[in-house]
Amino acid sequence: MKNQTSDRRPISARNSQYSQRVSTFLAQHGVTPNIISIASIVFAVGASLCLLATSSGFTHRIWWLLATVLIVLRLLANMFDGMVAMETGKTSAIGELFNEIPDRISDVLIFISAGFAAGSSLHLGYITAILALFIAYIRAMGNHMGVSQLFIGPMAKSHRMFTLIAFCLYNAIIPAAWQLPSLLTWGLLIISIGSIITIIRRLQRIVEVMGT
User: Fold this and answer.
1) Which CATH architecture best describes the domain 12-211?
2) 54, 171 Cβ separation under 8 angstroms
């Protein structure tokens, strides 16, 4: 969860009545924000195993579908930890660690595993993971310098994940005759290029704010 609620990532889904109901349900049943944050790592590990399975002897469309579902659950956990924190008023300094560290672990697990997936590139998997960490570092550095709300894209966390979801879903549902052998390589390349643009834009934003 976030200690500084003023720097929460803007997510429109937070305002839906369904999200509010789930958040209230979790809070009423004693599910803490930190537990939800840890659950996000569990979902990320599951998604990583599914991505790895796509290139194993047990390859099957179901692995792509399961990876998609688990990545979505990871994103939902990222959203609900902050919502439950607001619902219960349980914000703390250590809560910030539980919000940030699981995110970094999940990013690395998912993108490196995506590099090992069928039709993917191992090198791009590592590059994408490194870029994801660097984007998060720049946001943290910007916050330290007094520049908040550094969620500029085009490849912020949710954008990276949804791009990967789109490619996994394609592999899960598109007929075999339309499958592309190196599809995920292109997916990771798009994420990597978008991540580099994101890094540049966030650095520019920091320079602009600090220069005023």
Assistant:
1) Up-down Bundle (1.20)
2) yes
Encoded tokens for 148: 């908040």
CB atoms within 10 A of CB 172: 18
Q: What letter represents residue 69's amino acid?
A: V
Domain boundaries, the chain: 12-211
What pLDDT, in 10s, does the model give residues 46-55?
999 999 999 9
Cis link prior to 102 (omega < 30° from 0)?
A: no
Count of Cβ atoms closer than 10 Å to residue 50 Cβ = 22
Question: What's the CA gap between 34 and 26, in Å, rounded?
Answer: 12
**Residue 144: which residues within 8 A CB-CB, separation 6 or more?**
none
Q: What is the pLDDT of residues 106-132, one digit of tens each?
A: 999 999 999 999 999 999 999 999 999
